[in-house]
Design a protein that fits this description.
This protein has 2 helices and 3 strands; from the N terminus they run H-E-E-H-E. With about 100 residues, it is of the alpha+beta class. The protein has a 3-stranded mixed sheet with strand order 1-2-3, covered by helices on one side. The protein is globular.
Length: about 100
């Protein structure tokens, strides 16, 4: 996902303020994911799509080797720990 692209959201939220806060939080989280995982050497691209509480994160890496994958997986675990209210689906592919 490129900066500025629209993020699809779904699911009912209480008030319009709640909806705004959830949408803003998820956009900030998406940008954080793209920045944090994208900063790992060997990562070529990070695309994040949102469907309700699910964040699907597609990560394209240069080589499927230990030196590249280990820090990517460590960041994935950090996101699970730091944002327990979201469901993550991380997909790492060579590309």
């Amino acid at each position: 996902m490129q900066s500025g692209e629209t993020v699809a959201t779904s699911g009912a939220v209480g008030s319009s303020n709640d909806a705004y806060e959830v949408r803003t939080a998820s956009v900030d989280l998406i940008q954080l994911i793209e920045t944090e995982i994208g900063s790992v050497p060997g990562v070529r691209s990070v695309d994040v799509l949102r469907d309700g509480s699910l964040l699907r994160v597609d990560i394209s890496i240069k080589d499927l080797d230990y030196e590249t994958c280990k820090p990517v997986y460590a960041k994935e675990i950090d996101f699970y720990d730091e944002f327990p209210d979201f469901d993550f689906q991380f997909n790492v592919v060579m590309g």
